[in-house]
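Record 1 of the preview.
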Amino acid sequence: MTYYLLANPNSGNLRGSDKILKLINYLENTAIQFKLFETSAPGQERNLISKILNKMNPQDQIVIIGGDGTLSLCMDVLPAKHPFAYIPTGSGNDFARSLGISMDPIKAFKSIQLKNEVEFFVIGYDSTDLKGFAVNNIGIGLDGAIINAANSSKSKTLLNKIRLGQLTYLFAALGVLFKKKGFSVRINEKEFDNAFLFTLTKHPYFGGGVKIAPNASNLNDLINLIEVDRIPQVQIFSLLTKLARSVHLKDPRFHNSTSNQFSITLASDEPVQIDGEAYQISTGSKLHVWTEKRTIIK
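->
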C-alpha cells in the first residue's frame, strides 16, 4: 500500500512546511511507502488530485495535508464516494477540531493507519459566481470583508515571513468591524434588511476555535445559519464577548436556524469567505446551498 500525500507547505502562515517535514522524516524512518505531491501556488489542488487518482491503486490512500482552505479545494474535485484522510497544518484547523483529528502530524497519521472510516457532511454551494464544497462555513458580509481585507493587506507577506500572519486578520478585523455596512439578503422565505454577520456553518467552530454554532455537527445533514443585524458600534464588543463565551445564542439579536438546504439572494455585491478563502457574490445572484455526505479515514 502507498500513501499519496497532497500537501500545502504554505499552509498555517508558512508553518505547514515544518509539519510536512516532520511527517516525511517519520515515514522514511519507518519505511512506509508514500508519494508526495506539493502545491507551489494557490489552486493547484485540482490538477494534483486528478494526477493522484490516475496513479493510485484501489488499496492506496489519499492523505490531504494543509489548512481548511486546502481541504475545501480538494473536496471540489475529489469524488464524493472516494474516502480520504486529512492531516491539519493550517492556522485555524476548525475542521480537524470538529472531528477530533490530532494537530500533531505523526499522531494524526498513526490514527489514519487504523483505517477508521467516518461519514460526515460538507456544504455544497452553487451560484452564477461560485460553485464547490465547503467543509466549515460560508460567511457573507462581515467575515467575507475581513478575509478580503487581510488577503489584500500590504503587511500580510511580511507578517507571514516572521510567522505572525494571524495578526493580519486581527488588524483587518479591527478595520472592517466599524466600517462594514449592513446589507439586504433573502434566505428561503425570510428577509434580512440590515444583515451584518451572516454565516452558514456545518459544525460549531469558526475563526480558529470560536463556537459560533455550539449545537452544530458535521455528522448530520443540517446547516446552521447564524445572523446578526448591523448594530450601534458601542454594542459590538458586548456581542463579541458573548460570542467568545459561546453564550451568544441566548441574545435575541442573534438569529439561528437550521435546514439541510438554503436559497440565498443578495440585493448588493458582497464579499464572501468560504473556508477562509475570499470571493465575491454579485447583486441578484442566487446562492443555493445543500449538504453532501463524504467519508474520511481518521
